[in-house]
Amino acid sequence: MVEFLSFREGEVGQEPAVTVESFTGQSNSTAVRIEAGEDARELLPHLDRLSLVEVNFPAFGDGRGYSAARILREAGYIGELRAVGDVLVDQIVAMRRCGFDSFRPDKALDDAAVERALRRYDDVYQKTIDGRRPVWAKRHPETANG
Amino acid sequence: MYRYDSYDQSIVDARVEEFRDQTQRRLAGQLTEDQFKPLRLMNGLYLQLHAYMLRVAIPYGTLSARQMRKLGEIAAKYDRGYGHFTTRQNLQYNWIKLADAPDILAELATVEMHAIQTSGNCIRNISSDQYAGVSADEVADPRPWAELLRQWSTFHPEFTYLPRKFKIAVIASEEDRSAMRLHDIGLKLVSRDGQVGAEVYAGGGMGRTPMVAPLIRDFVPEEEIVSYLEACLRVYNRYGRRDNKYKARIKILVHELGVEEYKRQVEEEFAHMRTLGLNPPTEELDRIRAYFAGPAYETGLDDSVDRSDPAFALWVDRQVAAHKQPGYAIVNISLKPRGGIPGDASAEQIALVADLAEQYSLDELRVTHAQNLVLPHVKKADLHAVWQKLDEAGLAEANLDLITDIIACPGLDYCSLANARSIPLAQKLSERFAAADRQKELGELKVKISGCINACGHHHAGHIGVLGVDRKGVENFQLSLGGSGAEDASVGQITGPGFSEDGVVDAIEKVTNIYLAQREEGERFLDTYRRLGMKPFKEAIYG
Amino acid sequence: MKILTGNDLGTGDVIWWAGDGWSRQVGDSVDVSDKGEDLARAEEAALRVVGAYVIDATVTGEGVRPAHIKDRIRALGPTVRPDLTLKPNDADAGNWVI
């Protein structure tokens, strides 16, 4: 069983994450935690100060964190982006596609199930922030977007 | 119609294996029901009153004879010999075993079908016009767009856990045959200065708080529709309500923000999204469009119909619509036989329609949101033969858009969400108004019945709508008048206190009598209601 | 009385707690008094039932009668397809539901 999962090279953030309010106030912290209802764009002016952003999923059905992640990556954030909270193995792939590269779920994950999930889909239909070529790009490699 | 390439097929096959894995984990106790439920819902598997129910996707209501045949085989092999066509152009099986579900999905995958995202808080089946590609009034065939968006919405990583379900419709004509304005997002293809794009409507829906979708953008060019919809969905995903299941649809967000503010937020997000390279190249839509280029029609065909058989003539007048290609016709197949269960078809009937599609309709058929079927490419010369075969199978009722062409949800006979049974009421109405002359006299009269406030029977959009409620454990029925799901979309108005099942049949009869007594030349029931208002109808019903 | 009902996890069949196990016949239901919730959770954990819940019922001349029409429909089957119910040969079965 795995309690922490990382897809990053090298070290992962160990510093406790402060709240968005605290961080955007006057904090020297390099780690921040976004709650489900908070606006990730509040962090955009400060991305260069951040090495770790945690995004909390209070319930796995609350999908706001996926938007938060993508927004941060679209804005150029390259630090660690960690999904925490109610994260099940069945969400790992979609979370990765939105830019998450580490995971600290409330309940430990089954290693074998994680492996199967990661290898399940060879192809994806949408372009997003994960660098994978969507199917339409593979179908039309000669075009500008391909 | 669209055919999968190896990418499409591998994605569907992977999904089958993923669900097989999830089902095994559930049956082995490694997943609780709370964890498994959203996963099985995203594969269309509900737990209903009597068994599991599987909702198979029929993308934009189009399928081939081969696919239809497989649906019939599954009904016979895994279910109890029938299926139910729904108000979102899908098919439901009512008696599924969880243990069989992965095998059923595997069989569906062999004919390029699936049950992906037919439930759950995600983007659902994208619906479209049942006359797409064959009607003279369309700007362009809307189905290539629907297919492009089907792929875009499948396993979209950001929009898999939305506040609530999300339904999109795409049409391409002024006449709205798909209730487009009553969807979360509706697209109407238009041509502006030689460019094809879409008017975008957002925030429509039925259920507890019915709303007609307002226009939020006058024109989105086809090459930007994906990034524009990403913007619409992102705003909804971030700001749609998650505190109350009955206030979680996008219509509530649009209503609470106001249209202008929702538009503004979408435009802001769109300005950002359109820079991210999210849109497939035009070559991709062109590639999809090639599949919808239209079959090889024969030319020089006889454009006349021999009407000497009066029963056949009656059926032609009602069920056959004009095809844009001379010599051809669109055939509507009624799944509303007298006293029957709306939308249900036996495995044998499904097989027959598959055969008819193969032999007489260039291998293609359609499902309508009114729970009927369409053979889109029938030669006029073949109409009589088709009619005879339909008639033998109990599928030749001539009641399209008439009072007995009732939309009814499965209701309390099948559905765990329901408060009352809808089907017995539909059957009683069908019998009461069965006389052909009477139906013809009443003309276009769309009756829609829902067994609960979730409105799967679209009762808000019924010229006459009925909502089943639970009144202290006894079934009770609320009557509404004046709804419409067409381009003149409107929400029906409740008449007053509710009725027993027999009482509402009588009330509807009184309503139709007022119409017949008061109508002016050329008025449908809906027109007379709109002219007179509720008053005379209410007086007739309640005295 | 209080009885316990749910669906069989694997088949989806409607089932009723009969004291020593689950039955497909509502008539086999036993009174669970105030033990229903605990029983439901235990049986769900044991994978023998899904979606179990406690309902009111009475005993009549015809046997156990769930208080709510929804559960009577679950007990019998769809009223519009008597052939698919648990009593396909009983012409009056639908009346019991109402």
Short recap of the structure:
The complex is a heterotrimer of chains A (146), B (543) and C (98). Chain B is an alpha+beta fold and 543 residues long.
Describe the structure.
The complex is a heterotrimer of chains A (146), B (543) and C (98). Chain A has 146 residues and is α/β, with parallel strands linked by helices. Chain A has a single domain (5-139), classed as Rossmann fold. Chain A has helices at 20-24, 64-74, 92-97, 111-120, 135-139, and strands at 5-6, 18-19, 31-34, 52-57, 80-85, 102-105. In chain A, strands 1-6-5-4-3-2 form a 6-stranded mixed beta sheet. Chain A starts with a strand and ends in a 7-residue tail after the last helix. Chain B has 543 residues and is α+β, with helices and mostly antiparallel strands. Chain B has helices spanning 6-27, 33-41, 65-78, 101-109, 143-153, 225-239, 250-257, 259-273, 282-291, 310-319, 347-360, 383-392, 423-432, 436-442, 501-518, 525-532, 535-542; strands at residues 45-47, 52-56, 62-64, 82-85, 91-96, 127-128, 168-171, 185-192, 195-202, 215-221, 320-322, 328-333, 344-346, 364-367, 373-379, 407-408, 447-450, 464-471, 474-481, 493-494. In chain B, the strands form 4 sheets. In chain B, strands 1-2-5-4-13 form a 5-stranded antiparallel beta sheet. The longest helix of chain B is centred in the first third of the chain and has 22 residues, at 6-27. Chain B is globular, with a radius of gyration of 23 Å. The relative contact order of chain B is 0.09. The model of chain B has no long low-confidence stretch (mean pLDDT 97). By secondary structure, chain C is α+β, with helices and mostly antiparallel strands. Helix content of chain C is 23%, strand content 28%. Chain C has 3 helices and 5 strands, in the order E-E-E-H-E-E-H-H. Chain C has a 5-stranded antiparallel beta sheet with strand order 3-2-1-4-5. In chain C, a hairpin with a 4-residue loop joins strand 2 (14-17) and strand 3 (22-23). Chain C starts with a strand and ends with a helix. The mean pLDDT of chain C is 96. Chains in contact: A-B, B-C. The interface between A and B is large, with 41 and 42 residues.
